[in-house]
Amino acid sequence: MADPRYATLAVSAGLALFVLLVRDRRGAPPPPALEATIPAGIELVVDDGATITTRHLGRRILVGRAPSADVRIDDPRVSRLHARIEMRDDGVYVEDLGSRNGTLVDGAPVVSSRQLAPGAELTIGTASIIFRGVGSWK
What is d(CA 98, CA 69) in angstroms, rounded to the nearest whole number? Predict the structure, then answer.
């Protein structure tokens, strides 16, 4: 019967040779990945009559009086869930959610989904919301 130490030595040598051969085949490591900036959110300037704030929000924003709204406007003319602003593949859109008093973009009522350009002003109740653009924030 063969000595088990020789078998262990043979397996260890084979494993070392395999690791050396495989390591040589991998070649040089790939270059580091480029750090791409993907728009992650929407920037709005919100003037609710009492304060003016710049807010960096997500890709979908609910505007209204409800506590669950992302942008809360304390105005009786604003519905609980008044409007939705969302980022899509081809731009940022605003949609009125069936509110009583409607949503205006640059003075024109929003009938269906409407694309926003940077600098567009939304009027919801007495509040003014200016769409500044999209970006990535930490």
Answer: 15
